[in-house]
Amino acid sequence: MMKLFSPDRVIFEPKSLDYPLGRKIYSYFEGTSTEIIKAPIQKISSIIPGTTEGQKYASGKKTLVVAVKKSLKFDVCKPSADFGFSLVTGCPASCEYCYLYTTQSSKPYLRTYVNLEEIFDSVKKHIAQNNNRLTTFEVASAGDPLAIEHITGSLARTIEFFGALDNARLRVVTKFSNVEPLLGLKHNGRTRFRVSINSRYVIKNFEHNTASFDERIEAASKLAEAGYPIGFIVAPIMIYDCWKEEYLELLEKLRSRIDTGKSAEPVTFELIQHRFTPTAKKFILERFPNTSLDMDESKRTLKWGKFGRYKYVYPKEDAAEIKGYLTSLIEERFPDAKIEYFT
Ligand code: SF4
Q1: How far does residue 97's CA lie from ligand 1's centre (Å)?
Q2: Measured on CA atoms in the order 57, 59, 61, 66, is the torsion positive or negative?
Q3: Which candidate in 14, 60, 189, 336 could, as Cys together with 107 as Cys, close a disulfide (CB 3.0–4.6 Å)?
Q4: CB–CB of 124/26 below 8 Å?
Q5: How far apart are CA 89 and CA 147, in angstroms?
Q6: What is the percent of the chain with per-residue pLDDT over 70, rounded to a whole number?
């Protein structure tokens, strides 16, 4: 069973304790084996121990920083939503292919924000700026808020906040399965929960410290049962021996466990093929020297991305095969589902 995350150390930015949530998190850790430290943001990196890249990475992943979110202007978050904001950045998992490695420091700690009311005000401002049209917000583009929900409770508050907003929708994505506290919330169908899912092989070999294949499907099943609009992010999709059999197994499992009748909204799928940048490959090889991730450039093709960075993706024919195969698996089992994109 997935163990709930417990950090080795929690670092409070002094101002965070001016907020009720900051104090709540402080009480949560008082008297536990987690070391409590108060320090300004500039000191954090020197407090987290580690000499080798591997040690720094491991101790970063076991550190939670409690902070106040200063910049309240949200980024545009295409293709998944109009805007993205964070309750939490980083996550305690160690996926070998993680797309965040290149933007994080060598000590990728988790950070949670305590000024929820200010964040909620900013959500309202962004809707107003959008002329009060229906506006979608992604809350998990820079981290996995469910991973530390047992410590913060902020995802639950955010779901209920959106539940009371007519012209906004929230989108969450997770690789964790501790969904019980969210099942009874007044979400009003306005939060779409996407479970990040993959074949057994990918989850077992590359997604360390996350919920297992079966746990995630059970979590999705409970969320669907509780009336949340449901989605699946199948990512990163990889080609390996037996990939077709295993993605078939995945879709079969989803079909048998997900009741699509509880929400008026269609089930959505987002399909993302595996990709890597040269910088990410360097990080991955440092942190996981024995990785079996396939990062052989000669079997890939270059694709230019945002900001002039390029990445390696599957060649056109392979990408078309992944897209065609996954699309047919989905359409046969979820005829009303919406495939939002393949990239
Ligand atoms: S769960 Fe997401 S953010 Fe966390 S390590 Fe895995 S890919 Fe990265």
Answers
A1: 8
A2: negative
A3: 60
A4: no
A5: 11
A6: 99
78: amino acid identity, one letter:
K
User: What is the reported pTM?
Assistant: 0.94
What average pLDDT does range 73-95 have in this prediction? 93
Q: How far apart are CA 136 and CA 252, in angstroms?
A: 30
Q: What is the pLDDT of residue 141?
A: 83
Query: Is the C-beta atom of 58 inside 6 A of ligand 1?
Result: no
When pLDDT is averaged across residues 191-214 and rounded to a whole number, the result is 97
DSSP for 212-225 reads -HHHHHHHHHHHHH
What pLDDT score was predicted for residue 78? 82
Contact at 8 Å (CB) between 269 and 192?
no
In the reported structure, the alpha carbon of residue 261 is separated from the centroid of ligand 1 by a whole-number distance in angstroms of: 30
Quick count: other Cβ atoms within 10 Å of Cβ 262? 16
Interatomic CA distance for residues 238 and 322, integer angstroms = 8
Is the per-residue pLDDT at 149 higher than 80?
yes
